[in-house]
Amino acid sequence: MQYDFHEFFSEYEKLCREADALFQKVKEQCPDEVACDNGCTDCCYALFDLSLVEAMYINFAFQQKLDESKRREILSKADQADRQTHKIKYYIAKEQKKGKDTGEILQQAGSYRVRCPLLNDEGRCDLYEDRPITCRIYGVPMAIGNETHTCSRSGFVQGGQYPTVYMDKIQDRLMDMSRRLVQSIPTKHERLEEVLVPLSMALMNEYNEEYLGIVRPATSTSNKPNEWVLGGED
Prior knowledge:
By secondary structure, this protein is mainly alpha-helical. It has 8 helices and 5 strands.
């Protein structure tokens, strides 16, 4: 039995192209405010989580496009980044239990910087063409919930009227892709499509049958494990 996620990965790539187009549109309308340029790595220290489909796509690209030596190097950095991220999430949960204002908690958490494991010593992304959508949009105004955020290095002024990317709509589409991906496989894990992970964990995870909770047919007598692939052939 084979599980081919190529359809969902192609749909995700289409959304990436749309995100790139949105960024370019804002940049053309606000050339003096968008500060993104070669060598800028501010977005490489941002904290955010990935939906299941995005995490699986980036993991697949990581496995396919980088050699074993490079992957080992990045995984070592991913482990360190994941430990830092875990501490920050623990802090957020602890402060929430104390009843502290969510906005204040997130503002404080946002001041912590965790280096992305894909950022190399030359200040470049080792998987730039396959970077997450948040990385593609970072640098222009982003509406998340009732809050608008942008890069601290940009020229956008708080309270100003600028074209804005609504990240909640993008996230809804990612969650819908994840839901349909999960529906395409016989998994025992309930709400698997709701799992969100930081990029460091997406790189370290093995998205195999065990992780996905694949249930083999009860009538099968073969000892051969079910085959599945993360991507199909074009």
